[in-house]
Amino acid sequence: MKPLRPVMLAHHCRGFSLIELVTVLILLGIIAAIAVPRFGGVQQFREYGYAEELIAALRYAQQVAVARNQPVIIAIEPSGVRICLASIENGDNTCPAPNGNSAPHYLQNPGSDRRWDGIQAGQAPPGVSLSVSPSTPLTFAFNGLGEPVHWNNDAWQAVSALMTLTVGTHTLTLEAHTGYVY
Questions:
Q1: Which long-range contacts (CB under 8 A, 24 or more apart) does 161-165 make?
Q2: pTM
Q3: Architecture of the CATH domain 42-174
Q4: CB 61: neighbour CB atoms within 10 A?
Q5: Residues 129-162: pLDDT tens digits?
Q6: Any idea where the domains of the chain sit in the sequence?
Q7: Of 85, 50, 58, 35, whose CA–CA distance to 169 is shortest?
Q8: Using one digit for the tens of pLDDT, what is the confidence trace for 74-118?
């Protein structure tokens, strides 16, 4: 006598069972419920990215000041940051916004090769605001020793207190005597 073979076995093995499909849908639902809200906060990513960009820019400005033994001026506004080389001969103490023909010597962003003029580089992303505390030195510089200084009575003087820059919810700190930014 022949052993009985299941005739339907070959047709029954194709596809997924209803239990497997429901399990996968439940797992996808749980993952979506956890992951989707994390992608909704684009503004936080913009703020964090701009804060990191500012840290890198300030450190680069300090390095250039030390390498050239020449002040590098940083002008901070709510819309962005400008970084210029100071002219030692002219006693420059500002980093004005570009206005057509007369533009100061802006530093080039080494990552993108764009000028730190607050337009090409250094501009805050949409919806990101920048504020400084204390508000008095909105324009400061790094001297040839890498120390933060500000213009006071026709001379560069050392910054005597911590400076904090706030980018949305992120706070950057500039140490008074060393110029370390974190």
A1: 161/134, 163/132, 163/133, 163/134, 163/137, 164/132, 164/133, 165/54, 165/76, 165/130, 165/131, 165/132
A2: 0.71
A3: 3-Layer(bab) Sandwich (3.55)
A4: 25
A5: 888 776 645 788 898 899 998 877 777 788 877 8
A6: 42-174
A7: 50
A8: 888 888 888 888 865 555 667 777 765 555 688 888 878 888 887
